């Protein structure tokens, strides 16, 4: 596996692959890779001849008060995980390589980006859509792999790809969890021992509501009240949102019908964690 830092070099390597008729999978990441990312890379290597993992903590998707500076970084560890799971290139550019200092072009989607995470992170998805567009233009993959843990991001990227006519297949991948149900996240590393235990409340609240849904409850005000009530039993938890929206349109629902997403964002101490499940055709996706 090769570490590549420049756009020019990735382009040259991908061109050679394509000239030889090889298919290319892209796994966009911000690094600090864990088993969730590993599962994406493995899937990409099963479905493509070559795999590029991008490893870039994207400054434009962080607001000034967020954790851009402290976001965990460990390129040596990332290289080991990427290689073990079948990556051919890890693309690790600098911010200067990715962005002109006076860049004025951004990809901004309305509507779908304004719900859920978009309410408390109003500039986040503009940064995500811009960097993902740039990565798509640089790597020109046949397929790109995104985890369902960031379900709104997944829905946004699928819509962006359709609306902007990228000829790229977006492959959704399931949430990978710790042994006790906590969704894998690079931000779990911020949690103290006590907070790590408290963080289980996200998955617990979702499981209780899932059970209510399978027992026939459809009224989203009842279901959301349950999410809130369960999360409030944990003193270290502060709710950002607990929502039920259509999937992949991300429109708030009065009744949990059709394909829908039950999603929570919760601060555990100062760490903001997200988790969710999706119901598609009456069963969990
Ligand atoms: O999901 C992430 O890690 C990031 O939002 C992404 C897609 C790599 C863009 O920076």
Count of the separate structural domains: 2
Regions with pLDDT < 50 over 5+ consecutive residues?
none
Q: Count the E strands.
A: 10
- What is the CATH third-level topology name of the largest domain? Rossmann fold
Number of helices: 10
Could you state the order of secondary-structure elements as H and E? EHEHEHEHHHEHEHHHEEEE
Please summarize what this structure is.
The protein is 38% helix and 21% strand.
Question: What does this protein look like?
Answer:
The protein is an alpha/beta fold. It folds into two domains: 172 residues, Rossmann fold, CATH 3.40.50.620; 92 residues, Pantoate-beta-alanine ligase, C-terminal domain (Pantoate--beta-alanine Ligase, Chain: A,domain 2, 2-Layer Sandwich). The strands form two sheets. A six-stranded parallel β-sheet has the order 1-4-3-2-5-6, sandwiched between helices. It has a four-stranded antiparallel β-sheet with strand order 7-8-9-10. Helix 9 packs antiparallel against helix 10. The longest helix is centred in the middle third of the chain and has 16 residues. The radius of gyration is 19 Å and the shape is globular. Bound molecules: pantoate. The site of pantoate (PAF) has 10 residues, from strand 2 and helix 6.
